[in-house]
Write the structure tokens for this entry.
Amino acid sequence: MKKKQEELLENEDLEVRLVVRAIYEKYGYDFSDYSHAHIKRRIFNRFSQSGLKSIAEMIHEVLYNPKFADQVLMDLSITVTEMYRDPSFYKAIRDEVIPVLRTFPYIKIWHAGCSSGEEVYSMAIILKEERLYDRTQIYATDFNPVIIKQAKDALYPVDRVKEFAANYQKSGGKRALSDYYSIHDRSVKMLESLKKNIVFATHNLVTDSVFAEVNLVICRNVLIYFNRRLQDRVIRLFIDTLPAGGILCLGSKESIQFSEHHGHFDTLTGKEKIYIKKYS
Ligand SMILES: C[S@@+](CC[C@H](N)C(=O)[O-])C[C@H]1O[C@@H](n2cnc3c(N)ncnc32)[C@H](O)[C@@H]1O
């Protein structure tokens, strides 16, 4: 009985690897170093919702039905986000990071894995309020082209705004969040002036390389989906992107502590996972 159960699990793992391989060979998105448990859960969820009879049929759909493939890419992306997610993190940005950024004549920020842009506009508002926006260039990237288009459009459902506004106030917001958007039917649209210095682009942390030197990298709630090897690769990319004294921000459940590259960073605030690249 135990043997049968083991064989079933082994076969399921093999099926997951076959789907991942098909996505890579056909579309170039490489999920092979993502957390296996996460990828397996997502693939089997899609499989059971799809009404397909076997994983072989699912692979066929991935290869021949672009709409289905987009859906699977969306499933594997996990794009959940919000404005001022973890307000205490944004409070630390105001209190600890802004004073460092203020010392630079020109500021470059990279939001890697920015999803639909809520964290990018959160940061843009802080920069405006701290009078740093005009000397800042922001790069906002994600590997998913559909989600990057949403980030550029800057349209968010009106029923999420109450939560966003509460987060903004908790994070030390200086005005009302409503000063930064206009209302369109059931959506709010962030002001165009917030977008002026933001470049939105697709960038894949697995396969693409450094594209600019920046003073601050914000990559939150992305590494959590990667295995240790891929986390190390991406942290290496950030080391190459940041000059000495540059700042790296990770998500609340992520840490540099277990990376083979942790020696390159000092901790600016441990609780908020904000690190500063060492000079040596
Ligand atoms: C959970 S969201 C986090 C969004 C935002 N950073 C936050 O903390 O709210 C994870 C994002 O990482 C993106 N992502 C996943 N793998 C990626 C990769 N290899 N390269 C770039 N972005 C990736 C996903 O598309 C998704 O938008």
